[in-house]
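Box 4.2: Ligand-aware structure prediction
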Amino acid sequence: MSDRIKILSESVINRIAAGEVIERPVSVVKELVENSIDAQASSVNVEIENGGRKLIRVRDNGTGMSHDDAFLALERHATSKLKSETDLVGIATMGFRGEALASIASISRLKLLTRDESDTAGTEVLIEGGVLRKSERMGMGIGTAVEVRNLFFNVPVRRKFLKGPGVEAAHIQELLIKLALAFPTVGFTYSEDGRTKIDAPAVRSTFERIHTLYSKDVRENLVAVDHHVGDARLHGYVARPPYARSNMRSVLTFVNGRSVRDRLVNAAVNRAFSNLMERGRYPLAMLFIELPSDLVDVNVHPQKAEVRFVSPVQVSQLILDGIHQALMGAPFNPPPAPVEPFFPRSPVTSLASHIRGEREPEDIATEFPQREQPQVGPTPIQITPPLSEAGGKFSSLGIVGRLPNSFLVLHTDDELVILDHHAAHERLIFDELMRTESNASRPACQDLLIPKILQYSAVEARALAAHLDLLQDAGFRIEEFGEREFVIKGVPEWLGNSDVEELFSQLVDVMLNTGLRGDPARFKEEVLKSMACQASVKETMTMQVEEIRMLLNDLDRTGSPDVCPHGRPLVVRFPFSEIRRKMGRR
Ligand code: ADP
Ligand code: MG
């Protein structure tokens, strides 16, 4: 009964540790490639077979190891990267625990081949399930090769949870793409069962690396991000909406050179795109966050995919501002733009009144006499040539005409461009609401001759009452009036003659259903989105050339990406070359 407590054997300890760090083949690749990078390799070659189960081989031209170090490296807690405890702060290398090689060797058949410059011959060590099987000297160049065969042969539980080889391989490829982006000056090759999947020679910049890793289609949509606040920096690339992907895996983020998957970072990226993406669509981004090492702890997680920031709020803001600056040339909460005010004299009011059959003010009406209204079908207005040198992206478009369903037909020198007027108008109103929202000046308000009284259920009334300030900021004059009633005395001019009751019933819906009350800023945006949608024109059949011009000028001024606040594209383009081809002409 006396010796129930046993000291675990070294090999059991290693296997336990391995279970924590090595979950699947991609974990092995990560540890090995990070070692190669730590060893200053300028070229790393990765091969796998059968999803990494049968073989993982990583070769590098780094510093290599001496004969003695080769053996030491395979022992637990042997590391050349951490000399003292104080080194734990501000670790510059990737690995530091000194347990990866020992762990992997305890759950596979691992062969290490290595040679450093102090040696004339290389060292080969073979370990099987943590047991040394063979070691010999052999001729080789400087560098290291690690071969891992039969991974998890002695850990049936892990083996059982592995996915098919295709899935495991996909994880490995994704990891290597991230590493390749983070280390453009290192050349990477990767093959699966003898087929080359990545061939990325060493280059000087991330930009050049993106060129090899991504298709033209992606590259054409990327804009550069570069934003500093004090010692903190965000740089990289994001794809301009409407370019989008169907899951969050397309958002690659790095903190101080390390690929991370962090909730805070992801939330900030999503937030930056929140009124630029359709629901269920995600941005494509490669973002590098650089922080002084005392402001971030990258060693929270054994696999170092998570990080802890000393000032999370600042990091979120850095991401938001950086992305918005890149997409719109303005920080997230733009200061009042030094442009002509969009309200009150804008196409918004004039268009809205047009549609609702109102007459324009005298001067406008006489200056641009009304055309005859066709019943159906497209209406040619006139073809004005695009003024290529006129600068503005939208304002330089030539106007062809209008189609039913709110589409306008425009053109450049080499493309036919269809603009969704409703979506464009929505974007303009939304941006303007966001701007007034952030600079505290309320949009002009129009008094109603007869105040409108709205009645609600108790729940609805409570929701509305809680958000009166938001409505007032947007230009409504609204007050509580009895227990479940509200009186609207004035509406913002941008609303035109939109149906106020309809708008409010939508707003109350948003207030009750978005589930965003914990996030006031996002909630506000949702409300503003509904307002913008409700107030924007639904059709264009009455639009005059001059109104279209005004709209295009206004679109140039917003500088937002070409999507409506719900993320739908404002324009689709048909290159003349394509039309010519379809017409059978060359
Ligand atoms: P860690 O990377 O945390 O130090 P590892 O078990 O991954 O722990 O590696 C142990 C040691 O082996 C490293 O500190 C390094 O000195 C050496 N080493 C591992 N891989 C390589 C390599 N590819 N080239 C040179 N040295 C290596
Ligand atoms: Mg390591």
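In the box above, the bound molecule is magnesium ion. The longest strand covers residues 445-455.
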